[in-house]
Amino acid sequence: MTKPLRIGIAGLGTVGAGTLSIIEAHGKLLAARCGREFHVTAVSARDRTRDRGVDLSAVRWFDNAVELAADSEIDVVLELIGGSDGIAKEVVETALANGKHVVTANKALLAHHGTQLARAAEDARVYLGYEAAVAGGIPVIKSLREGLGGNAIDRVYGILNGTCNYILTAMRESGRDFSEVLEEAQALGYAEADPSFDVDGVDAAHKLAILTALAFGCEVDFDSVSVEGIREISALDIAYAEELGYRIKLLGIAQQSEGAVLQRVHPCMVAKETPIANVEGVFNAVVAEGDFVGRILSEGAGAGAGPTASAVVADMMDIARGSTLPTFAIPAAQLAPSKGTSMAAHVSSHYVRLMVTDRPGVIADVAAALRDEEISMEAMLQRGHAPGEPVPVVITTHATTQQHIASALQRIEAMEAVLEPPRMIRIESL
Ligand SMILES: NC(=O)C1=CN([C@@H]2O[C@H](COP(=O)(O)OP(=O)(O)OC[C@H]3O[C@@H](n4cnc5c(N)ncnc54)[C@H](O)[C@@H]3O)[C@@H](O)[C@H]2O)C=CC1
Ligand SMILES: N[C@@H](CC=O)C(=O)O
Ligand code: NA
């Protein structure tokens, strides 16, 4: 048997502790599958005294994770701290500069510095694994880089944030309030250190930027992702979506057209009978559309200790077996400069909900604003009759550009009878 793979772990929180548990539970299985034993030889975290359910007494402890990353008795460094800059970046850069393989679950780091880190890894002839960074336990990186390697990818999209999907599912199923459900997702270890990254769509955008680079062979370009989160989604909109035959999902979607890529993250209404509408709770799903293979959907847990650690361990197995694949499928130096395009010209149907004073003429004024922007209404719904009182009015439109809908909504919002900013959710046909 080849000599053991010496592992240093920086970060022993949800994912770090989960990784230790798998190595402890499946040490023999991993060795049999890779022809090498996995030895955790060093660890670093903020709190040395915390019980992580695994005996670490024989493992070297580093107060400074960067020193761990430079240690000569480590072959692979697991960066499981988090954050796009600061200590996590320093750990990864130090490990690569010292000729060590790196496995990270850190999508923020890769979304901001992925191209540069991929170059550093390839220059040092080491492996940079990040399966855990996108869709947790779903082997989506392996699938795109290897299994679908013979296809040009037309579109890649999915439910990329477990916390948001958990919140939207629980709100729909139990009618509970947004903040109560968010606290539950945090307690389960799903949410980011700063949960606004989850609910504002930033985490999904980090993951989408990584998928885009891999799928389309371009540099990672987080700045050109258009991002909206789920904070504004109310129980009322979830109930109307149900009634209209839709589910609300936060999707990340990247599509290439004429050499440019549109990357967008926003809440979508998707028809209830589509597979993605039925992906619930902390589960993620990723769909890749290849020119020869057609549509592939992978579904699984996108967050949490076990599923995320499962992906970390899979990357270590690739390293143990000597894989030398480029980070983003083609050598980092050959990735095309990213050519992002904006949402302005993007065409879709829309759900619009207004809260209006119930009086004659309001609907006619709203219809006129839509007509002036050449937006055709598909349906309109107003329940009950309460003269002079606030009532919800729901409109669905036929396909129109973002520019047109934004102008119409601006005009509608300014109307005296419209009592609060209109809520708009794009209807996505998948
Ligand atoms: N929790 C999840 O479900 C998932 C998390 N991730 C990513 O995995 C990474 C880790 O996330 P979690 O385990 O959830 O975070 P966590 O907050 O549970 O754990 C972070 C760990 O890093 C340690 N740490 C913080 N600063 C440090 C420093 N200066 N030196 C050494 N150690 C330090 C902390 O002591 C803690 O052990 C993040 O990049 C996160 O985005 C990715 C997929 C899923
Ligand atoms: N906070 C993230 C964790 C996994 O990446 C999520 O909720 O999906
Ligand atoms: Na994954």
UniProtKB/TrEMBL annotation:
EC number(s) recorded for this UniProt protein: 1.1.1.3
Every ACT domain range: 351-426
Organism expressing this protein natively: Denitrobaculum tricleocarpae
GO BP term (any one): methionine biosynthetic process
Residue intervals passing through the bilayer: none
Binding site for NADP(+): A10, G11, L12, G13, T14, V15, G16, A17
Keyword Glycoprotein among UniProt keywords: no
Family: Belongs to the homoserine dehydrogenase family.
List of residues binding L-homoserine: E192
Pathway, per record: Amino-acid biosynthesis; L-methionine biosynthesis via de novo pathway; L-homoserine from L-aspartate: step 3/3; Amino-acid biosynthesis; L-threonine biosynthesis; L-threonine from L-aspartate: step 3/5
Catalytic residues in the record: K207
Pfam families (UniProt xref): ACT, Homoserine_dh, NAD_binding_3
Keywords recorded for this protein, A-Z: Amino-acid biosynthesis, Methionine biosynthesis, NADP, Oxidoreductase, Threonine biosynthesis
Cited PROSITE patterns: ACT (PS51671), HOMOSER_DHGENASE (PS01042)
Record-level Gene Ontology MF annotations: homoserine dehydrogenase activity; NADP binding
Protein residues bound to NADPH: K107
SUPFAM superfamilies, per database record: ACT-like, Glyceraldehyde-3-phosphate dehydrogenase-like, C-terminal domain, NAD(P)-binding Rossmann-fold domains
Official protein name in the record: Homoserine dehydrogenase
InterPro entries: ACT-like_dom_sf, ACT_dom, Asp/hSer_DH_NAD-bd, HDH, HDH_cat, HDH_CS, NAD(P)-bd_dom_sf
